[in-house]
Amino acid sequence: MNWRIKPLDLILATAEKKGLKRQLGAFQLTMLGIGAVIGTGIFVLTSVAANKAGPGMMWSFIIAGAVCLLTALIYAEIASMVPVSGSAYTYSYAVLGEVIAWMVGWALILEYAVAAGAVAVGWAGYVNGFLASIGHGLPAFLTAGPADTITLADGTKAAGGFNLVAFLVSAFVTWILVVGTSHSARFTSVLVAVKIIALTVFVVIALPAVDSANFEPMLPNGWGTPLSGVGVLGAAASIFFAYVGFDAVSTAAEETRDPNRNIPIGLIASLVVCTIFYLFVAYAAVGAVGAQPGGALSESKEPLAFVLRQLGWPQVGNWVAAAAIIALPSVVLMMMFGQTRILFTMSRDGLMPDALSKVHPRFHTPHVVTIVTGIAVALFAAIFPVGMLADISNSGTLFAFFVVSLGVMILRVRSPERKRVFRTPLIWVVGPLAMAGCALLFVSLGGYTIKLFLVWAVIGLVLYALYGRNRSHLRDSK
User: Is 195 among the domain residues?
Assistant: First the structure.
């Protein structure tokens, strides 16, 4: 295979020739980042973390957040140098070559498209539960896909049919993205406000109820070991999903005004805001009702609402659940947004069909790739259960983060003279720590997930050999 590298100057020139309209500022980018991050992870995975690590999930949130913060510092440097769409794919192409870039782009499908479908299914679970509670529930076969199971009226289990609500929310988000990026940003900002208010209300009510006794024993399952999928590290690997999405800010670089300044602000600000909220929420949840494995919190499908109901605030708990229903579509939106921009850039490089890089003459959005992605996500959400590929989504993200961290360090040596508006502080400390953190979380996902990732990687390499290698715009390069 050819390890050809696409020079940074050529990447920038290509973007100027066939680029997207610049219309986003620092505030909009920060809102997009928060919108992508705060979602299913904190509203749902708190119970998963409690079951794996107990009160030790506090450390899990810190570990996952620290790995993401180190990576965000890395992303801020390269994104300000290369303000074009494509995120980790583009950066890898510029530093490590086409094969690695293809593999990163292929892995990012796990981060974005699979995650978007998973969030849509999780959101549909909230909505279907709400509809059933008011006596207007859908027929059971329309509440889950054929790869999922449903509980019939007589208590027996059966295969689902078609997750209608998950399909519809994916279709709606696709329409929002086709209409325009600025519309998407405004829509996301409103939903971000809803989520922030809900989490703030939760912390205000739960924090005064914290009891130190609920933190004992702190580590019921220990720290965990690689491939085990349990303990603090196992929970951190799962909780990592709660932070995934901040890097979607960098996929909007080509649509950002003054990207050299605004992209680093959007990346770091969104992650810092989310991390602070996560730590307060986790501390309040554990301290208020306890979080031992197998306990009530670990079994809850809506852990934050459960905590508030246990504290005697059932109505507020219902409102927090309602906030999740209202706001989670913003996560679907940002996951799909990131996916379309990556595929758009891969198409522009010749590694994907040319039609995927067409820009709508009126809306200035990559409408073809958006529609194709939307159809794929909608069908995925309609067919598969939320838990099937949740961890494999993390595996793709961790692989991409690892490669970007390595690439930025290589670029420091290879092109030290290139202008860097934002420079990662202590790069020779931050970079290796980010890579080590990604590797640690990756092996903590569990053996089954790692096997699935390797199968996905092999499929990607075969597709590159059969299609991308011969159609790349750099195929004639030496």
Answer: yes
Beta-bridge partners for 256: 24
User: Is residue 44 exposed (0-12), middle (13-18) or buried (19+ Cβ within 10 Å)?
Assistant: buried
- Phi then psi for residue 86, to 5 deg, are 120, -20
How sure is the predictor about 108, in pLDDT bands with cuts at 50, 70 and 90? confident
Structural domains counted in the chain: 1
pLDDT in tens, 386-429: 666 677 788 888 998 999 899 899 989 988 887 777 889 999 99
Enter the DSSP assignment of 354.
G
Cα–Cα distance measured from residue 427 to residue 437, given in angstroms and rounded to the nearest whole number:
15
Torsions phi, psi for 210 (to 5 deg): -65, 130
d(CA 445, CA 450): 7
Q: Is 52 within the bounds of a domain?
A: yes
pTM over 0.85: no
The enclosing domain of 128 has a CATH number of: 1.20.1740.10
The closest alpha carbon to 11, from 121, 85, 117, 88, belongs to: 85
**Angstrom distance (rounded) from CA 174 to CA 165:** 14
* Long-range Cβ contact pairs of 63-66 (< 8 A, separation 24 or more): 63/232, 63/233, 63/236, 63/437, 63/441, 64/236, 64/237, 64/239, 64/240, 64/242, 64/243, 64/441, 65/243, 65/271, 65/275, 65/278, 65/279, 66/437
Q: Which range marks the domain in which residue 275 is found?
A: 8-471
Give the pLDDT band (50/70/90) at residue 360. confident
**Lowest model confidence (mean pLDDT) among 236-250, 333-347, 436-450:** 236-250
Would residue 3 count as lying in a domain? no
- 369, two tokens: 């790739």
Strand runs labelled E in 111-251: 149-151, 157-159
